[in-house]
């Protein structure tokens, strides 16, 4: 039927018979090449120095069993192979690169089919910065920022601090949560990839939590009261860093994050 329609509309038969198979073959080849590259990177030996960095700084990694640790290492290696991480006025060591990658992989670890593709350049600044990305000595300074389709900016000192301390605050998780939020082109606290019914549930949850933060009835940091996007990003921090507190005081929000990320950190805690 399709051939008959194309023939009647004057489409040259060579386009019908030849080009679709060629295009399909090309797409298949590109996908296979990408998969093979991911496999080669994933099975590459994760060196002892890299493993010592994870052992010494990433509590999430330490809570995994042996099989899960190997998968975490593989996902970190794949992320580092794909991401462009650049220092701005500072050096970027392998340890810092590993902390950036670990922040991202923690979010997607429960969903092995998810990946961080088409990321903008990740810029590492030595310290918190102002809105013009200059080193800030003012009270208002940014430890991280996502510029849609342009860059992810992180303060190196804030990133290292986040992994060295047990407080819920974590700039890496926070900024990569924003990336998940922005995947659908909106900055609204509703993460990407949700069906319509789940989107409505998320929107209601985030709006309710925003009101609770602003009225002092939430466990979340007051910065979550800035807007819906910050409510989501701070909630992600608490989900990973203070899961028992979040589940106890905000069970519906915890359950929504658990289902979306397919992880249950409160059970590991």
Account of the protein in words:
The chain is an alpha/beta fold and 269 residues long. Among the domains are: 82-183; 185-269, 3-Layer(aba) Sandwich (Collagenase (Catalytic Domain)), CATH 3.40.390.10. It is built from 14 helices and four strands. The chain has helices spanning 2-8, 13-17, 19-43, 48-57, 59-62, 66-82, 94-108, 156-164, 171-182, 196-214, 228-241, 243-249, 251-261, 265-268, and strands spanning 85-87, 121-125, 144-147, 151-155. A four-stranded mixed β-sheet has the order 1-2-4-3. Mean pLDDT is 85; it is low at 1-19 and 26-37.
Q: Would you kindly provide a brief summary of this structure?
A:
The chain is 59% helix and 6% strand. It is an alpha/beta fold and 269 residues long.
SSE layout and pairings?
Elements: H1 2-8, H2 13-17, H3 19-43, H4 48-57, H5 59-62, H6 66-82, E1 85-87, H7 94-108, E2 121-125, E3 144-147, E4 151-155, H8 156-164, H9 171-182, H10 196-214, H11 228-241, H12 243-249, H13 251-261, H14 265-268
Parallel strand pairs: 1-2, 2-4
Antiparallel strand pairs: 3-4
The strand order across the widest sheet is 1-2-4-3
Tell me the β content. 5-15%
**Radius of gyration in whole Å, from Cα?**
22 Å
**What is the tally of helical segments?**
14
* Inertia-based shape: globular
How far do the termini sit from each other?
Answer: 59 Å
Total number of β-strand segments? 4
Features:
alpha/beta; four-stranded mixed sheet; 269 residues; Collagenase (Catalytic Domain); globular; 14 helices
